[in-house]
Amino acid sequence: MNIQIDDVQVNSIVEQLEYYFSDSNLLKDKYMNKQVHHSNDGWIGIDILLTFNKLHLMLEKVLNEHIKAKQNDISVKDVLITILLHNRFKESQLLVANDEANEIKRRHPFIASDDLIRTVDEKTIYIEPVPENMTNEELIALFSELGSIENVSIPRFPDKRAKGFAFIEFKEKENAINAITSIRSNKEKYKLRTLSKIDWLNKKKQIVDAYQHQHHEQHHEVVDQGGYHYNNNRRNNDNFKNSNNNNNSGENNNESIGKRILKIDNIPLTTNKPFLWKQLDQFFHTVFLDYHLGGGYAVLRFKSMQERDSAQEMVKSGKVIIDEQVVTTSLLTDHEFKTHMNKSSRYQHQKQQEHDNEVRMQQYEEDQRKLKSQKNKEKKKRKKEKQKNKIQQNNNNNNDNTTDNKKDNSIVNFDSDNEDEEMTDCTTKDNSNNHKRSFTETLDEKDIVSNDINKSQRI
């Protein structure tokens, strides 16, 4: 099928295909990485590639031009096959197609490693602030004069809003170094702040580590909606009440919230919220700060419209400098205003819950102290009674021992008397027996004498 495609369009589509299979994209694109990893020797069917929105739109643009030329019998898939058979694609140093031109793969397999990640980061620069409506193509056009660009990435929030910064990956590390030098030396032309991605990652890590360390400290200083500095202790409740009073006083002045808020832009994307609070306190006092790390802008709420106007004039004068960068101001969009109001409402509800929880916690701790005190008293009372009973028992035991000793002495005396009596009885009995023996012996002697006399007479 003969499809005539402009060389510029062919080149753009081939570059888009190369981007899908590039090291930088496969390192962060989980879906594409999975497709390559689970494919047959790295081959990816063009049916999968046709599901990618940007590629599909580029092919549709070519297709529509041919439909206008009355070539109605072609499809988006036919356009892609034609490009894969084009000499420009065959000359690609990264990709190759099969003979049927229905599958493509990398010429060299992709292997993720720490060295590869560092190599990609060394070729990448970080820039800010990037306008919300700026596109990748505009950034490529702006920086292509500084070197051949491999990839442009504009990070976005879940609602698709740009975060205000971008990463530009060059094909060579030297191009990235030269780009940083050029941007810094031509501030009027670029009006950007830049540093290497390696330095950006290191700085971000330092900020995150410092914030986490500060957040976990017991006396971490934060700022509540009323603008009062407080530590994470029971003073929170007093400050929360004060913040409510401030908010109520502002509402009683019949000033709408819309007239008391101010948007400031051009905030360095590595600036965290606690640091931003302290910096702004040097210029004016706000009662609420709506800011996300990396967002590039913040929404401030003031106690009165006069304070807001005064702060706006100060910002416009260029006197408000955050982290060596002059901030600017702009009008809030309807979406930003609604987002801010919703966040403010959620924050107020959260603070109310925290306040209620703190009160409940204080009551719980007080109840626990009372319960613990009561238990200690009961414990002491039981211990005292136990000691008293022990003393009483010891006294009773001593009395029992004394009585037993007396009884033992009495028994001993009684036994001694019995022994004396028995000895006396024995002596008496012995004397009686002796007397009896003596009397018997006397009788016997008399009988002998009598017998002797009788015998003598007979003779």
Automatic annotation (TrEMBL):
* Protein keywords: Differentiation, mRNA processing, mRNA splicing, Nucleus, RNA-binding, Spermatogenesis, Transcription, Transcription regulation
Q: Where is the composition biased (Basic residues)?
A: 371-389
Q: Where is the composition biased (Low complexity)?
A: 231-254, 390-402
Q: Per the database record, which ranges form the HTH La-type RNA-binding domain?
A: 3-114
What GO molecular functions are on record for this protein? RNA binding
The record's GO CC annotations read: nucleoplasm; ribonucleoprotein complex
List the Pfam families: La, RRM_1
PROSITE patterns given in the database record: HTH_LA, RRM
Q: Where in the cell is it found?
A: Nucleus, Nucleoplasm
Q: Which GO terms describe its biological process?
A: cell differentiation; mRNA processing; RNA splicing; spermatogenesis
* Segments of this protein annotated with the region Disordered: 227-255, 363-459
Say which domain of life the source belongs to. Answer: Eukaryota
Location of the RRM domain? 123-197
**PANTHER family of this UniProt entry?**
LA-RELATED PROTEIN 7, LUPUS LA PROTEIN-RELATED
Q: What is this protein called?
A: La-related protein 7
